[in-house]
């Protein structure tokens, strides 16, 4: 790394520490835009968080990007995920089986209780290489498998299997990205775990439609 690069890294690290302190854990580089709110977040490497996003109590895998105005709560998100703008992950719910759905009985800001109650929230689990379109809402406790796509404006209330394409309210399966046999092979390959050197040397595998030659080469690289 050049002297300029070292200085740039040092300045960026200092800026992040001054702004967020111990509220985040990360490896450089981390790209965080203005007006982003972070609390108890563990980042991987080469993450990008666009302006006005908010992330709380979550883990974000390597090279995952998060769009503007997106809100993430209590989620474990894998590598190489593309999360668009104004997405809500881990949406806050209300107690439908209580006498009232209102939060006055466990939130002190409404003036009827002296302290906030602890509301258990199930974590959202999003695997690797998942694409989530704009204005999607993902409810607590949902698991989304590798390679899945969630269409814009969808509300996800149930688990999504690997490489499914889901759309709608509630989100339903529209199709599979690939045939079941190919999906089974991809699930064993886990290309997102390849080293940076392997990905750089084989980037051409990701620039054309998937075929069996690509599968064969990925299996060789991953020794499966």
By CATH, the superfamily of the largest domain comes out as: Hexapeptide repeat proteins
Secondary-structure element sequence? HEEEEEEEEEEEEEEEEEEHHH
Helix/strand class: alpha/beta
Uncertain runs: none
Specify the biggest β-sheet: 10 strands, parallel
Shape: globular
- Total strand segments: 18
Number of domain units:
2
Tally the helices: 4
Give the averaged pLDDT, no decimals.
91
Instruction: State the end-to-end distance.
Output: 35 Å
User: What amount of the residues lies in strands?
Assistant: 25-35%
Rg, Cα atoms, Å? 20 Å
The helical percent reads: 10-25%
Can you name the CATH architecture of the largest domain?
A: 3 Solenoid
**CATH class wording of the largest domain:** Mainly Beta
According to CATH, the fold-level topology of the largest domain is: UDP N-Acetylglucosamine Acyltransferase, domain 1
Keywords: Repeat, Transferase
GO molecular function, one term: transferase activity
Protein name: CatB-related O-acetyltransferase
Organism: Aerococcus kribbianus
């Amino acid at each position: 790394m050049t002297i300029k690069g070292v200085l740039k890294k040092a300045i960026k690290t200092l800026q992040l520490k001054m702004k967020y302190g111990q509220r985040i854990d990360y490896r450089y580089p981390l790209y965080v835009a203005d007006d982003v709110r972070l609390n108890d977040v563990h980042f991987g490497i080469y993450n990008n968080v666009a302006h006005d996003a908010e992330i709380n109590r979550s883990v974000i895998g390597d090279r995952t990007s998060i769009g503007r105005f997106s809100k993430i709560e209590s989620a474990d998100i894998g590598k190489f995920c593309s999360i668009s703008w104004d997405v809500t992950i881990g949406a806050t719910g209300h107690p439908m089986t209580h006498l009232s759905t209102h939060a006055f009985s466990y939130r002190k800001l409404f003036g009827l209780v002296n302290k906030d109650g602890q509301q258990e929230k199930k974590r959202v689990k999003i695997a690797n290489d998942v694409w989530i379109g704009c204005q999607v809402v993902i409810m607590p406790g949902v698991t989304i498998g590798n390679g899945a796509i969630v269409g814009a404006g969808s509300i996800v209330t149930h688990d999504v299997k690997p490489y499914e394409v889901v759309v709608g309210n509630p989100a339903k399966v529209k199709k599979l990205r690939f045939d079941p046999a190919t999906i089974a092979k991809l699930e064993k390959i886990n290309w997102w775990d390849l080293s940076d050197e392997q990905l750089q040397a084989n980037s051409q595998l990701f620039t054309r439609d998937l075929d069996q030659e690509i599968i064969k080469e990925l299996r060789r690289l991953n020794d499966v």
